[in-house]
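Researcher: I'm preparing a figure for a lab meeting and need a structural model of a single chain. I don't have an experimental structure, so a prediction will have to do for now. The sequence is pasted below. Please return the structure as tokens so I can convert it later.
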Amino acid sequence: MELDKRFYRWGEERRYGKFSYIVRTALFLTIVLLSSRLASLFLYEPNSGVEAFFLQFPTQILMFTTLSVLLSTLGWCLKETWYKSKARRRSLPITSL
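Model: Understood. Here is the structure written out token by token.
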């Protein structure tokens, strides 16, 4: 039953499009990565580590955003492959996006 929910949920997600999915997921991942990095610096590093974080902030945003976009694209491709495989098994028409 859970597989059916995931199948139909991804079918609904596909309607919004690839670009929308990648942007939303990448934004979420970037925020999570930056906040976890900052939290770990506050917990485990002295004050100089936190200052260094803000000095390197533009570089870290660029790095985390690039990583997030790559992971989001990979996630889309994996979910799309899974969806198409399940749709073929159910003999459903597959619309390309």
